Amino acid sequence: MSIRALAALIPLALAGAAGCASTPRTHVAEPIPSPHGTAEAATATTSEFTYVYRECKGPYTDIVPVVEEMWAYALTTGVENPVIHVVYYDDPETVDPRVARCDVGFERPEPSPDEETEPAPIAAPYRVRTVPSLEVVSLVVKGPPTTTWECYGTLARWASENGVAIDSGAPVYEKYLGGPGTPDAEFPVEIRMPIRDAEREP
After folding, report:
1. 124 CB contacts (<8 Å, ≥6 apart)?
2. Is 2 within a domain?
3. This prediction's pTM
């Protein structure tokens, strides 16, 4: 199963949106059926954020220990209630899962103007990067984070039906909305697929 999207459905989403305007249609969150029950689909503009992350290589189903590591590391840097992000770069259907790349990290809150302390220094193997604001299609689902890929086809199909072109060359982002104490069955994850910029359309 594709992490970037179901192999047959990403091309469908691209073809279904051929010739559409660069500005995505505006949608309120729409409840739609998914393999994880009813999910909330929408187009959205994400906020820029800075995160501390670790580069990973290997089967995407093996990231749970890294997620737990990043939660623990976030607490040592003074970040309370860490928000975890996972960025998937490769499609395991076309790339050997043993070398599939992803980043796992946590948001680093921006210091308030009246704070005098500097953010805790970050040392290897951890890194810091800023993700810019993106136009995306998003789907909020509930269930074990290692199975969210089951809903990628649902989001790709919804995008196609709504005339939105997914950027098949961009990473797929996941934002974990639950925490260490959230039961797997109820764990909320937001899947984000960037929308293709009309200026870069072939």
Report:
1. none
2. no
3. 0.82
The separation between the first and the last C-alpha atoms of the chain, rounded to the nearest angstrom, is 27
Q: What is the CATH number of the domain that holds 157?
A: 3.20.80.10
Listing DSSP states for 116-135 in one string gives: -SPPPP--TTEEEEEEPP-E
pLDDT in tens, 134-178: 999 999 999 998 899 899 999 999 999 999 999 989 999 999 999
Pairing of strands 49-57, 37-45: unpaired
Helices (H) and strands (E) counted in the chain, each on its own, are: 3, 9
Count structural domains, the chain.
1
- Tokens 């210091």 sit on residue: 111
Minimal CA–CA distance to 107: which of 92, 137, 87, 134?
Answer: 87
The answer to whether residue 1 sits within a structural domain is no
Contacts of 123 (CB under 8 A, 6+ apart): none
Residue corresponding to tokens 């604001």: 133
Domain that includes residue 114, residue range: 9-200
Residue 105 lies in a domain: yes
Strand segments, DSSP code E, in the chain are 30-34, 37-45, 49-57, 84-88, 101-107, 126-131, 135-142, 172-176, 188-194
Interval 44-84: pLDDT, tens: 999 999 999 999 999 998 999 999 999 999 999 989 899 99
Tell me if the bond preceding 24 is cis, omega within 30° of 0: no
* Residue 192 covered by a domain: yes
pLDDT reading at 23 higher than 50: no
